[in-house]
Amino acid sequence: MAIFLNSDSKIIVQGMTGAEGMKHTQRMLAGGSNIVGGVNPRKAGETVEVEGKSLPVFGTVAEAMSATGANVSVIFVPPAFAKQAIVEAIDAEIPLAVAITEGIPVHDSASAWAYNVEKGLKTRLIGPNCPGIISPGESNAGITPWNITGKGPIGLVSKSGTLTYQMMFELRDIGFTTGIGIGGDPVIGTTHIDALEAFENDPETKAIVLIGEIGGDSEEKAAEYISKHVTKPVVAYVAGFTAPEGKTMGHAGAIVSGSAGTAQGKKEAFEAVGVKVGKTPSETATLMRDIIANL
What residues are labeled active site? Predict the structure, then answer.
């Protein structure tokens, strides 16, 4: 099994005809994802040839879903229009929307998420500012390289895109059920806890890697959740041990104030509930290898 995304997923791409959308549509198709169409109101009715496949372009997400049976949308829409694209996906009640776009104003992300809550959370939103979700050997909705890892028993949830790729590559010989990049913005859809809950309930996921970073309290909340609800072994890595206090790093959410949001504080929160924390991504991978070897 995989969580949220599998071989039955039918994917549409909002913004498919743009440069980024087209490039990653090609890559997703090359990796075996079932892309069934794209959305661009200005090019509705056209057909685009991608990787030897004719993909129809629709005016709206609802039209695309009706015509193709799509149940996943990947959003490659410029920041100024991304909120509108996310809201459109929510209005269509598509089960999974993956917002890759970086640089969406925080107010727009907050507004879109509030709208999703108001509508009853019928759409699972991953992102924004994230690499998306990949279930190796089954499907890839986003920009994670499909050929860096294989299928296996590890679940991965990460705030960082590049660290998602590194961890999947380091443990490629063991493999993953699903890897989710949730994004590091202050307001995101799917959280560490959402992923932990899904991995806990997935019989094929035997162990979990969690990657966090300085700023906010997502990791502290995840640690508390693990102590109460997760029976599977978890290892963690927290990026940002060398960050100077008070400085905003990388992702917009990574703001450090006192002990709240520091890498050390997050490390201590995890260790207090029995989660081993690697000093580096490679050490974290080694911790996971030890766990898998002893399962």
Answer: 251
